[in-house]
């Protein structure tokens, strides 16, 4: 079969003939239906620092995957041939597709069954793939780390790819959501996803006492603004890495007893949580679809900032 493989940095992906995988003990083989393209894929192609994360070179990349179980290895009892599944890229003890083992930029992929998440029939494979990374990460920050729930006043800083999903998840869970976004061109989107109000900064909501604020931007000043805006005893979750350093007012942090938490990635349970929201038909992230053959071109467009929403290669 043909697979798009990474050879080394500063070189394009190579379409290579590789053997079809078989399911070892504890594994399944997936007939791939959709694979997401991510900025970390672009980073791998451009930055030598990513090489240390790879189990081998060349390697088939692609860590946002959804497909149908085609073969089941010895000892696998939770899944059977024909099951629709997504692959959690941060499942405990497994390693990420495209890094620890060959990923989804190929028609078939062997993957440990421990990374699989059942994909509801109501969720198409493109959404199933997209939810395994951006969806999981945004949900984990908002719900698992932040604890956002029905009735909470929730602040969302940054309405980019992660912020949109996190804000929508909070709305669907019954929270009252306020969005801080410096780019006024995307303010209408805040209304579309159900936010109560949108302003340039989270501190502009002077009359709102936030229970939870999730900073999906992380632009140095936004963390401190979140600490200032959250209620005493409230929670601030930092997931955005727009800048890798921030200056905060420790007086506010201490005297308000603010819970300041970091968040990264997520779990199979987070992926399942996103799938459950998608299955309602009320969470529909914007997806740009390309074909398998267009994957290298898609990565170039992603690098140039030309993609709207999440970029997914559909194999159907």
TrEMBL record:
Entry's Gene Ontology molecular function annotations: alcohol dehydrogenase (NAD+) activity
SMART domains: PKS_ER
Domain Enoyl reductase (ER): 8-313
Cofactor(s) of this protein: Zn(2+)
Family that this chain belongs to: Belongs to the zinc-containing alcohol dehydrogenase family.
InterPro entries, alphabetized: ADH-like_C (IPR013149), ADH-like_N (IPR013154), ADH_Zn_CS (IPR002328), ER (IPR020843), GroES-like_sf (IPR011032), NAD(P)-bd_dom_sf (IPR036291), Zn_alcohol_dh (IPR050129)
Cross-referenced PROSITE patterns: ADH_ZINC (PS00059)
UniProt KW DNA-binding keyword: no
Keywords (A to Z) from UniProt: Metal-binding, Oxidoreductase, Zinc
Source taxon at top rank: Bacteria
Pfam families per record: ADH_N, ADH_zinc_N
PANTHER family linked to this entry: L-THREONINE 3-DEHYDROGENASE
Organism: Corynebacterium guangdongense
EC number: 1.1.1.1
Protein name: Propanol-preferring alcohol dehydrogenase
């Amino acid at each position: 079969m043909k697979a798009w493989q990474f050879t080394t940095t500063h070189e394009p992906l190579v379409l290579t003939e590789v053997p079809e995988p078989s399911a070892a003990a504890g594994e399944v083989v997936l007939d791939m239906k959709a694979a997401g393209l991510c900025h970390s894929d672009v980073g791998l192609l451009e930055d030598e620092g990513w090489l240390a994360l790879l189990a081998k070179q060349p390697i088939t990349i692609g860590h946002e995957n959804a497909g149908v179980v085609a073969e089941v290895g010895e000892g696998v009892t939770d899944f059977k041939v024909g099951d629709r599944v997504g692959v959690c890229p941060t499942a405990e003890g497994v390693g990420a597709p495209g890094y620890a083992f060959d990923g989804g930029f190929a028609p078939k992929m062997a993957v440990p069954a421990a990374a699989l998440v059942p994909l509801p029939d109501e969720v198409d494979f493109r959404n199933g793939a997209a939810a395994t990374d951006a969806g999981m990460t945004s949900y984990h920050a908002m719900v698992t780390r932040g604890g956002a729930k029905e009735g909470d006043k929730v602040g969302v800083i940054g309405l980019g790819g992660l912020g949109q999903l996190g804000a929508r998840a909070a709305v669907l869970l019954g929270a009252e959501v306020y969005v801080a976004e410096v780019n006024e061109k995307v303010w209408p989107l805040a209304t579309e996803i159900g936010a109560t109000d949108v302003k340039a900064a989270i501190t502009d909501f002077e009359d709102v006492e936030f229970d939870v604020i999730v900073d999906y931007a992380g632009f140095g000043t936004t963390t401190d603004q979140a600490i200032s805006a959250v209620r005493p005893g409230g929670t601030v979750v930092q997931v955005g890495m727009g800048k890798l350093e921030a200056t905060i007012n420790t007086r506010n942090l201490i005297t308000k007893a603010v819970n300041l938490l970091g968040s990264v990635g997520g779990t199979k349970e987070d992926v399942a949580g996103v799938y459950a929201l998608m299955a309602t038909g009320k969470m529909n992230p914007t997806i740009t679809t390309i074909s398998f053959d267009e994957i290298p071109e898609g990565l170039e467009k992603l690098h140039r900032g030309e993609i709207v929403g999440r970029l997914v290669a559909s194999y159907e």
